[in-house]
Amino acid sequence: MKIAVCIKQVPDTANVKLDPETHTLKREGVESIVNPFDLFALEAALRIKEAAGGEIVAITMGPPQAETVIKEAIGYGVDEGLLLSDRAFAGADTWATTAALAKAIEGLGEVDLVICGKQAVDGDTAQVGPGIAQRLGLPHVAFVKGFREIDDKHLVVERQMDDGYDVVDLPLPALMTVVREVGEPRPPSLKGKMRAKKYTVPMQGAVELGLDESQVGLAGSFTQVVKVFAPSHSGDRRMLEGSDEQMGAEVIDALVDTQVIMVGS
Amino acid sequence: MVVIIDKELCIGCEQCLDACPFDALEMQGDFPEVGDSCTLCGSCADVCPEDAITVPEVERAQDDRAAEAKGVWVYAEVRGGQMPEVVAELLGQGRRLAEQLGVELGAVVLGHGLNGVAGELFALGADVVYAADDPRLAEFNDDIYCKVLSRLIAEYKPEVLLAGATSIGRSMIPRVATAVATGLTADCTGLAIDPDKRLLLQTRPAFGGNIMATIVCPTARPQMATVRPRVMKVGERRDGFQGRLVTVSMEDQDQAATKVLEVVQALENNVNLTGAEVVVTGGRGVGGPEGFQVVSRLAEALGGVVGATRGAVDSEWIGHAHQVGQTGRTVAPKLYIALGVSGAVQHLVGMQGSDTIVAVNSDPNAPIFDVAHYGIVGDLFKVAPAMLSHLKQLRGQG
């Protein structure tokens, strides 16, 4: 089975702080990491390969330094990697991103399964996976949380829903996006790390993918950011005073007075 | 394509570096260099004291769909015969947008055994209901749902399409946007109309919820957005209103490739955060798994549900099902009590819609106090038990 996994390099947004004065982001010391949800995608690929055999290719799109996430994937045990990098890709929305990723996957030959993390933590759109599936004409299941059956013709997966989960039969070739419940990522192996050190990451740009500059990046995007601002918060606030015990009792009184909580009559 | 910096005018003050939400600028010697993550949002140009930064116009392919497209549509998700609350919210917001644009509000529903659904959609604000009722749509399968909805869009050409940012919406709608070749904005928390350009202004948290971004889709149609549940207001009901019902027929070759074998209704650990009227959340300040005991005792006394921050979940003090925030659940209960929660922006975006917010934290500078209605600077292990005992006293249980 040939599996393609799409991964993304993201800033470690969990550790981004806002400057309370200027309401801008403080970025000093914010590192680039592999999107945490993509680690679950890599883990899912490794487990499926263990069950059904085959080969895994990790693909990323980003600036040249994003090759580090491919090396990291090699460390986890992925067979090959591919970096899509081109100045023309800059500013791509999810439409323009899936244009490049879908072309790259087509270029790999017969791919049986494409796996993406459920979303990237910097954009949080969850749009790229289903978008690629549509472009490639593949069926997809999003938010997969577990596997019931794995063979080279189909998968039976558990799909997370708002009110529980569905068990879905997914014939291959297909795409799926995965959530953290698919399994804790294993640590990189020593052998993998050694291989990653020596591994030269192949790189492709718009020309290699056969895409015109008008189809990628900002020019190839349908959406446009027109304004960026700090979240606003309402200012109607009362700070309580006194001892911890007094404040605890007082806030309950205030909530009862304003009928937020009921204590019976 | 990136912003252009005029090195003749630039004084190297670095204000643009701080202003850039996408971290696209970096000093190279005396001048900033623009990296690939530039989105031409113009934040840098706004703060440049020397007007040294120009935002180039992006040349986009001509698209005549904007002239033809008309009407606001809502995708009315149905699962197991039930419509989630977000459908009513979408119709409430859709109604306001449609009135501003002076167009009709349509609702699309796909499923099987949809008796009574159209009437409910009319009551919730729809002028027109497009209903596809077919056994092949009984279970949710992305490919066939996408095919039917895309075909309707191609035929009726709405200018706006809204869907809930639910598991179903976030799985299927990106596929639909790709199929009809248009832009899609995920998980919006604000929607408005630019009356001059007739554009949908779509606002959402970006960058892990640390900033808000307003996004438009200038030329392609429909302008598509998924909308976060529990943010938009439901409109006034008009029971008995009879709109136009359009019955959608399927084609013979419409078959789903995927197959739903089993539907398991089970909320993980019975945590129903999004439906709760009271949420009591513990953050890193609770100190460990034992610290959640005081959180759950207070939640129980208030008939509420226990929430947790990403920090507490990542430390494995409590299960992921409890997580509130950008990567967890969005909640908007009547009462939200935050114990030992510092208030990272990615957490705030998931709870700031709550009616009343009480924050208890030992750090007076914790950002959670910015959104709180009642702020208590103190030791949560003393304050929370005091709240609990006073509550019991008032209820005559003490």
Tell me about this structure:
The complex is a heterodimer of chains A (265) and B (398). By secondary structure, chain A is α/β, with parallel strands linked by helices. Chain A has a single domain (2-215), classed as HUPs (Rossmann fold), CATH 3.40.50. Chain A contains seven helices and 15 strands. In chain A, the strands form three sheets. Chain A has a nine-stranded mixed beta sheet, with helices on both faces. In chain A, α2 (67-76) packs antiparallel against α5 (190-198). The longest helix of chain A is centred in the first third of the chain and has 17 residues, at 36-52. Chain A is globular, with a radius of gyration of 23 Å. The termini of chain A are far apart. The relative contact order of chain A is 0.17. The model of chain A has no long low-confidence stretch (mean pLDDT 91). Chain B has three domains: 4-54, 2-Layer Sandwich (Alpha-Beta Plaits), CATH 3.30.70.20; 65-247, HUPs (Rossmann fold, 3-Layer(aba) Sandwich); 270-394, Rossmann fold (3-Layer(aba) Sandwich). Chain B has twelve helices and 20 strands. Chain B has helices spanning 15-19, 43-47, 65-68, 85-101, 117-123, 142-156, 167-179, 292-301, 310-314, 345-348, 368-371, 380-394, and strands at 4-5, 25-28, 31-34, 53-54, 72-75, 105-111, 128-133, 160-164, 184-188, 190-194, 199-206, 211-216, 223-227, 244-247, 259-265, 278-282, 305-308, 335-339, 356-361, 374-377. Chain B has a seven-stranded parallel beta sheet with strand order 9-13-8-5-6-7-14, with helices on both faces. Chain B is globular and about 65 Å long. Chain B starts with a strand and ends with a helix. The model of chain B has no long low-confidence stretch (mean pLDDT 92). At the A-B interface, β3, α3, α4, β9 and β10 of A face α6, α7, β9, β11 and β12 of B.
